[in-house]
Structure formats: structure tokens, C-alpha cells
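Q: My labmate handed me this sequence with no annotations at all. I'd like to see what the chain might look like in three dimensions before we decide whether it's worth expressing. Could you predict it?
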Amino acid sequence: MRSDIDTILISRDRIAERIHELGQMIASDLDDISEDEEIVLVPILTGSIIFVADLMRCLPQKIRIGVMTASSYPGKSTTSKGVQIAGVLPSDLEGKHVLIVDDILDSGNTIRLVREEIRKRHPRSVRVCVLLRKTITSAMDTPCDYVGFDIPDKFVVGYGLDYDDYYRNLPDIGTLKEAAM
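A: Here is what I predict for the chain of 181 residues:
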């Protein structure tokens, strides 16, 4: 499987370092929230599962997780086919501080849809954290509070990101060789 990787864009060490930095930023921003106020992480599965697991270990606050599932790249697709919410959003978000966590921001459609659905549940605040943001207009124009890395407009795998449900377990983020696609 590693022989399918063409280029490593971001090493596992750099990913770990940046997640620690993001955790410090988020923790600082949430520091003024009282202990009786809830913080709910809403990871967008499946791609963000590894990212949210590492990120939440960097947050000292008392947090809950309310997972949801959305998909834009079904099967062997390397271009978005439109966002589909496949799971149910947490319903009990009223008055809570919500942090949406996603693996990659490209079209912005997933973040916009999830943010809109969460706002319908009347949270106290909504923030967005993405591991990767493509340096394309649609992504750069989508409001996002925390960004791990800006990357070129390439299809990437590893650290939770997949191609046809494979490569999520790679610890680095990279591009695939043409022959593997």
C-alpha cells in the first residue's frame, strides 16, 4: 500500500506538531467558557476520525462528541459528487458551544451544509476546524476558524483521508500514484 504513494505532502511528525498547535489555539479560545457550559465536538466522519481523536486529546476542557456522517467522494471518485448527510446530527445542541471538525475543506459544501444544520439547533457558538484546506477559491472563501494546513488542489490520502475506502490508516498525508487510482 505504501508503494501506491507518489509524494508525501505532510509527514506524521508535522501533523502531530500542528494538531498540538491547533489544540492550544482552540483551548485558549474556549478558556473563558465556564465549566457548566458544554463544548460539543462534531466530527464529520469518516475522514476526520483520526484527526478528531488526536485533536481532542489536546483539549483540556470537558467535551462531548456528537458524530455525524457526510460524504462527497463516493467510491473511486476523486472529484466531489455533492454532499450527502448520511447520519443524524446531534439534536441537543441548544445553548452549547459547537466545534465542527472535518478532514478537508475544498468545495466548502460540506462545511456550509453542516454549519447551517447545526445553527438550526440554536447553539451558543459554532466554530469550524479543518485539518486541510485546499488553496482554491471555494475553500479559501469558506469561513473556517482553525486550519491545520493549506495544500495545493490535489487529491490526497492518509491520516483518515481515503480513496475507495483505502489508505485512511497511512500516518502521513500524500498523493497516490496514477497506477493506484
